[in-house]
Specification:
heterodimer; A: mainly alpha; 77% helix; 0% strand; flat; B: alpha+beta; 9-stranded mixed sheet; two-stranded antiparallel ribbon
């Protein structure tokens, strides 16, 4: 009887504690969740909602148009060009950034004593805001006075109109983006490489494995989770490219540039220059859906390989 | 009893009316009013004139603070678009004519006081070409304030060097001059452009292309339709001239007759830097060149003529936000901006031409010959402005992109039919956007 009573008391205390526990969880997470809902979930939901309306910022009449905005995307040459450019840009930039940062991270492993110094050097562009970084590069790419043409000229390379020629402007922006984000992925890969037990590599070396074999059969397989993270993150980052494109290719006094269309710049233009918020909403939904699809595919691809 | 009630009511009414009158008198007295007026500007180069007006305004309204905020033009437009329909935003609106119709159509503008409305419709005070654009159904919605006028800028030293004694007077001369003025290296690369053509920034491309289009056709690419607010695309009506104009451009961007290149510096900076000999731009370039190229010996001239002769004008309109809680004071600030001393300041400091006609500008023009050449045009020189258009940005951007791409197409050199096809694409692109916005008209 006594034990049953004490059991009931214990259950009551646990249930009270649980209630209090939930209260504290709610108190701690509530504001964060509320903020997350207001600044993340609500805008996304609202973007999806307005994509079904003809929503012009200055026009109070905003009729429901169903899938018209999405249908229009299929006929919009500017959107299609932006979509293709963005895919092309992302593919090239992800490939170069990750290959280069992985390679440099490997090199830095071999000079362990000074690697931190070089990591800091490579990391400086990461903490530099996009806009001033892009302005600096605009001057570097200047066809008449830019240091890049001057430097190439020393080797007899003729002047290039980096931001004016449609054929090379994309590569110019790839250059800036790789320079900007290289340090970030370098540090991530560096952390991953440091996590590989040196005994594995030493054992392989004793067994006669060449550096390329150690890379292919030990380092890369063990780094797979880090690589997946980097591929996913870089795809998201580069698919949303905007600031360097906007700053580098917007025509300005004295420096007409080739206006490269990318997804986010088209969204920006439709939303804040043409005030077609509904149409820009539809573009945003397509961008979101496509990036999510890519991320899912990347995860699936790597998981399949693991299996 | 009855008379007592009447007495009480009368006393209350008298007290109330005195109180009310007293309150009114208090709020109407500028010296005692307190608060803040805000102004947003998309043309920061005019900000100093607003600061100058603040000094005069402070004499009348010592308790009212005036805040002038400047923004990059597109940012300014976006901020207005987000705030005015929501019933917020600045008290005083300095709107350029491209965006003005959007706000009077949406009912965001306060009623213009009678004296200012009378000023706007008085042809002796304001040129009626501009006044017409701030009216709808006979009602005035704002005061035309200053204009930026298309002008031919030329480098006097370059012309002398090429043996040319005066600026080009016709469109044909304009291209001939460009061919004589261009400087190339042995490989044919342009080192100094004969004329700096607007090659990028699609809305700017079509606007500058339109300067010569008007001279060659007598109409703008986009004209007012059956009524203000509706737009007619005119390319189809002048297809030969439109095709020829595009051909003139591509012929001078590729091959032996090349006078300009994407690789060289462009626009105002190129002119101020002495790396172009001529270009068509608006009057603000006068002050820009003086500041950025103090050693450049340059002149201004009226636009080169062809079938027609005239100058494009974009202009700023002063108005008051309907949601402003200090409407009367805001309109008084507008009155201050229209004072002769401030109009003269606008002209001398920013280079924009004030639109008040009944003001004496002779003291400024005596020391500003560049402005004099532009402002003192003969009567046959027609001033024209863009058709008010709520889809302006989208239409000019998308239609301008077609011309921008065509400029790069060397295959169009010598190909008039190809150029006509491109111009029809410009027509169709613009017409589709106007139609989508419900403002396309076919006829005049």
């Amino acid at each position: 009887m006594r034990s049953a009573l004490s059991k009931t008391r214990l259950e009551l205390t646990v249930s009270q504690w649980k209630k209090k526990h939930y209260f504290w969880i709610l108190a701690a997470l509530g504001p964060v969740l509320a903020l997350f809902f207001v600044i993340r979930i609500y805008p996304i939901v609202q973007t999806v909602v307005i994509s079904f309306f003809r929503y012009h910022m200055t026009n109070p009449v905003r009729p429901f148009v169903g899938l018209d905005n999405y249908q229009r995307l299929l006929e919009d040459a500017a959107f299609q060009a932006a979509f293709i450019n963005t895919i092309e840009f992302t593919a090239i930039t992800v490939l170069i950034t990750l290959s280069l940062s992985f390679f440099i991270a490997l090199l830095l492993q071999s000079i362990e004593r000074h690697s931190a110094f070089f990591e800091i050097i490579f990391y400086i562009p990461v903490v530099t805001p996009w806009v001033p970084a892009s302005v600096i590069w605009k001057w570097i790419y200047d066809p008449s006075y830019g240091i890049l043409n001057f430097f190439l000229g020393l080797f007899g390379v003729p002047k290039q109109a980096w931001l004016q020629e449609p054929g090379i402007v994309l590569l110019a922006i790839v250059g800036v983006s790789v320079w900007k984000m290289l340090g970030y992925f370098l540090v991530v890969f560096g952390v991953g490489l440091k996590g590989i037990p040196s005994s594995y590599l030493e054992a392989a070396e004793i067994d006669g494995a060449r550096p390329a074999q150690r890379l292919a059969y030990i380092i890369v397989p063990l780094m797979k989770p880090i690589i997946v993270f980097c591929v996913v993150m870089s795809t998201i980052i580069f698919f949303n490219v905007f600031a360097p494109v906007y700053v580098l290719t917007s025509s300005a006094q004295g420096a007409p540039a080739y206006e490269l269309k990318v997804m986010v710049s088209e969204i920006f233009m439709n939303a804040f220059t043409f005030y077609r918020m509904g149409y820009a909403g539809a573009m945003s939904v397509v961008l979101l859906g496509f990036v999510m699809l890519l991320v899912v595919l990347q995860f699936a691809l790597f998981r399949d390989k693991e299996e | 009893m009855k008379s007592r009630i009447i007495c009480v009511v009368a006393a209350l009414a008298l007290t109330g009316s005195l109180l009310f009158a007293g309150d009114n008198a208090g709020s109407a007295d500028p010296k005692t009013q307190k608060g803040k007026l805000s102004i947003w500007l998309g043309y920061p180069e005019t900000a100093k004139s607003y600061e100058e007006a603040k000094k005069l305004f402070a004499n009348k309204y010592p308790g009212i603070q005036v805040e002038v905020l400047t923004f990059e033009l597109r940012e300014f437009e976006a901020k207005l678009a987000a705030s005015l329909p929501a019933g917020v935003g600045p008290d005083i609106l300095a709107l350029h004519d491209f965006i003005f119709p959007r706000y009077y159509a949406a009912g965001n503008l306060a009623d213009v006081p009678k004296d200012l409305a009378e000023m706007a419709v008085n042809p002796k005070k304001i040129d009626q070409v501009f006044a017409k654009m701030v009216m709808r159904g006979g009602k005035v919605y704002g005061l035309p304030y200053w204009t930026g006028r298309s002008t031919l800028f030329y480098n006097k030293d370059h012309l002398t060097e090429a043996g040319l004694s005066r600026p080009p007077k016709t469109v044909k001369e304009y291209w001939d001059y460009a061919e004589k003025l261009v400087k190339k290296d042995a490989a044919g690369n342009v080192l100094r452009s004969g004329v700096s053509i607007r090659l990028t920034g699609p809305s700017g491309v079509i606007q500058k292309f339109g300067y010569l289009y008007y001279q060659m056709t007598g109409e703008q690419i986009f004209e007012i339709g059956e009524e203000i607010g509706k737009v007619r695309v005119t390319i189809k009506d002048h297809l030969d001239a439109a095709g020829q104009l595009l051909l003139d451009h591509v012929n001078h961007l590729h091959g032996a007759k090349k006078v300009d290149d994407w690789k060289v510096q462009h626009d105002g900076q190129a002119f101020a830097g002495g790396v172009t000999s001529m270009f068509l731009r608006e009057t603000w370039i006068i002050e820009f060149t003086k500041k950025n190229g103090p050693n450049i010996n340059f002149g201004t001239a009226l636009m080169p003529a062809d079938k027609a002769w005239g100058a494009f004008n974009y202009f700023e309109i002063l108005s008051v936000n309907k949601a402003s809680k200090m409407g009367a004071a805001a309109w008084d600030f507008v009155r201050t901006m229209l004072e002769p001393s401030i109009c003269n300041f606008v002209l001398s400091d920013s280079g924009y031409i004030p639109l008040r006609k009944d003001v004496d500008y002779s003291s400024v023009l005596a020391v500003k010959p560049h402005h004099k050449a532009v402002m003192e045009a003969p009567a046959s020189y027609k001033l024209y402005i863009e058709a008010p258009n709520t889809a302006y940005e989208e239409m000019t951007t998308r239609a301008g992109e077609v011309i921008q791409e065509a400029f790069r197409d060397a295959g169009l050199v010598g190909n008039l039919e190809g150029c006509k096809k491109v111009m029809m694409k410009v027509q169709d692109t613009a017409a589709a956007i106007l139609k989508d916005n419900g403002i396309l008209t076919a006829g005049k």
